[in-house]
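Subject: Sanity check before I submit

Could someone independently write out the structure tokens for this chain? I want to compare against mine line by line before I put it in a report. The sequence has 204 residues.
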Amino acid sequence: MHIAISGNIGSGKTTLAGLLAKHFGWEAHYENMDDNPYIHSFYEDMQRWSFNLQIYFLNTRFRRIINIRNSGKTVVQDRTIYEDACIFAPNLHDMNLMTTRDYENYVALFELMSSFIKAPDLLIYLKASVPTLVRQIQLRGREYEEAIRLDYLKSLNDRYDKWIEGYDLGKLLIIDVDEIDFMERSEDLGIIIDRVNADLHGLF
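---
Independent answer below. Compare away.
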């Protein structure tokens, strides 16, 4: 099975992926920013590097999905390929940080790639307000994230909510990170584990 965790920057995707992998004995696939050759440049100059960054993400996530499906293992993945195409790329385009020419090229490539893949068996969406995102971004202390603009986070949040409202590719579990603190409270993690079990295996 393929379980994917989606959510804005700082929502806790990597942490939850690790916790669920440990509890269920799943294999976790993380988004490794340290190996990303564009991320630092992007936050320094979004307009110059937006297209390069999105193509890099599209390529790496497509390859990862193929590997997950071919592995025969149950995998929990940090972020999905759909978020790039439905949220990040159109947001950059609307903010005039990606040209229309580049955006249309990106969309055409995504549409081709998406025809070859299957959606996750379960999508977990970590919904969080901008203040919660800012607090968690500051706590993890990544230097390149210090330049993230609040309007950028808010715009992404709005797009996430709209995307999730219309998501119909498979099972969906929404976790309100403002209310459920799975990072600090074991009982809150237990709530998520119970809900994941119910969605994947049904209630007994």
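---
OP: Matches mine. For the report I'm noting this point. The chain has one domain: 2-201.
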